[in-house]
Amino acid sequence: MVMGRQSNSYGSGGDEERLPLRGVLETQQRAPGTPPPVHHAAEQLKEARRGGSRLWRASVRAGLVLCLLTVPAVLLLLRWQADASPQWVFDFEAPEEDDDQDIQDDMSDDLSPSPQIAYDRLLGGLLVEGFDEKSCRSRYQFARYHNSPSIPSAYLIERLRKQEALQKKCGPGTKAYKEASKQLKYGQSINTTDCNYLYLIIHAGLGNRMLEITSAFLYALLTNRILLVDRYKEIADLFCEPFPGTSWLVPSDFPLNNDEFSQTSPESYGNMLQNKVFGGNTDRSLAGNRPPYVYLHLDGTYGFHDKLFFCEDDQQFLQEVSWLIMRTDMYFVPSLFLIPAFQDELSRLFPEKDTVFHHLARYLFHPTNNVWYSVTKYFRSYLAKAEKRVGIQIRIYETKGILQRNGPFPHILNQILSCAQNEKLLPEVSMAEGAAAETQNNRTAAGTQNNRTIAVLTTSLSSWYSDQIQKKYDEQPAVDGITVKVFQPSHEEYQRSRNKKHNMKALAEIYLLSMSDELITSGFSTFGYAAQGLAGLKPWIMFKSENHVMPDPPCGRAMSIEPCFHQAPFYDCKAKKDADLGKVVPYVRHCEDVSWGLKIVNQTHL
């Protein structure tokens, strides 16, 4: 619902009252050429001055009264805007709230700190108090719907507090930022502040955005840089600000144009190396040759020289550059773990090495109120009372004609059911005739004893798969009498990564998936990576099928909760030759779903 706004105009729009000008006298009519009496003119002057004074005082009083009446109205308007009802993002009508509240959400909506609130609203110390809670309800409410299996390290918490102080000291609006952006604008290579920056250009779909922002933030944390992100990709419509007292959105007057940067840009680090801009120095010293900024092209199409970003010598070189401009669509964290200069710090930050995305994503990403309202309302209405919640994320990579890339594909449906039933995530169904009626009679006779429910949350661009799963359990009920209910919040048919409403729905679904007890994801999907990372769950990954044939086995358990780096380099910087980087250290392995990719695992032996 669109709320009306008060008019900014306080006038009637008609004729305005005209006040007498200072020093102008009204005179009585008299015959032409007849001078007024001197004493009468003096009296008129005194009277006019007294009248002007009275009118001046009256106008002042009127202005004060207007201010007294206007200020409360403005304050009420601002408060109304802050407390405005959030909007439902899904296309169907929002469900009515049940009188019987979910046990996980039976607390008052008053978010003020209270000893009665048992959940860890600060996520083990990742978050800090002090944010305006009503403007971003998800920040402190997420813990109501989620129990993390991991505790962040004390050192990670310490470093996050230092990063927050750095972001506030050097962020947009500060003297340091103004000076640094001025140097950038005029191409000055000498940094007159102690603030260095990493600006992330965002251009990919939602899952990729979450992975690339997390990767960029970890790199900023490791290199003591301020992270700024692209303000033009609806980030503010999706996520609240993560840092207290400052913004991570690059200001609108940022002196560089995003469209200028591509793999062929002369400012690209790979091109600088290839063209020997630095004189071919093997140690890549910047003495006397510091550029004002360097562009890092880390997209999936990047070349050999771009990938040297992941070499230690190149990191020493880049450390001296004040501004780094980065474009990426990948989760490049695994390759940071292979840079010797970062390894000790990363081990201190993440003693459980496979929790990088889990901790940093919960720190960085807080859905805006419209998204969060839709998440919690949907959860309470459809999922909360189930005995178990199973999330199934379906991404189709097959084609069947130009307009049918999402199916229907029966072999994909069989793969989903085979995976879920083989791994005991969903019950087997009875094949006997009349089983449906017999099961219903048994439920009626047993009352509530067999009233056990599994809620299945499916996310897909197509509704066909969820409809078929529900139809199967309606026609052939579970052998153990469990009721299976299938829900799907949206079915967009096609991905529209530049559509704000589409992205808001997608983000709501990622968070709903993260509230599952068990999770099935589609291999290669960054959407699934984001959900599993937020949840802290090792999913069952459905392997990609070939030639429209269901793979055998249909799925496999993930080694860790970490996303996969799809386009990881395979160049050994120390040996200066190609190598299998999935066998260098025990905690970086090849991915289950992308054989050439890399992911972090929590292992200590090769």
Describe this structure in words.
A six-stranded mixed beta sheet has the order 7-6-5-8-9-10, sandwiched between helices. Among the domains are: 210 residues, no CATH class; 211 residues, Rossmann fold, CATH 3.40.50.11350. 36% of the residues are buried. The chain has 18 helices and 14 strands. It is α/β, with parallel strands linked by helices and 606 residues long. The longest helix has 45 residues.
Supply database-style keywords:
EC 2.4.1.-; single chain; alpha/beta; golgi apparatus; globular; transmembrane; Rossmann fold; 18 helices
Q: Strands, helices and their partners?
A:
Blueprint: H1 38-82, H2 138-141, H3 154-170, H4 175-185, E1 197-201, H5 206-223, E2 226-229, H6 235-238, H7 269-274, E3 293-298, H8 304-307, H9 312-318, E4 323-328, H10 333-336, H11 340-349, H12 356-364, H13 369-383, E5 388-393, H14 410-422, H15 435-446, E6 453-459, H16 464-475, E7 483-487, H17 500-514, E8 518-522, H18 526-535, E9 540-542, E10 555-557, E11 571-572, E12 577-578, E13 588-590, E14 598-600
Parallel strand pairs: 1-2, 1-4, 3-4, 5-6, 5-8, 6-7, 8-9
Antiparallel strand pairs: 9-10, 11-12, 13-14
Helix pairs in contact: 5-12, 5-18, 12-18, 13-17, 17-18
InterPro entries: XG_FTase
Membrane topology: Single-pass type II membrane protein
Family: Belongs to the glycosyltransferase 37 family.
Give the terminus-to-terminus CA distance. Answer: 58 Å
Radius of gyration from the alpha-carbon trace, in angstroms: 32 Å
| CATH top level label of the domain at 369-429 and 451-600 | Alpha Beta
Globally, the shape reads: globular
Strand content: 5-15%
Q: Roughly how much helix do the residues carry, as a percent range?
A: 25-40%
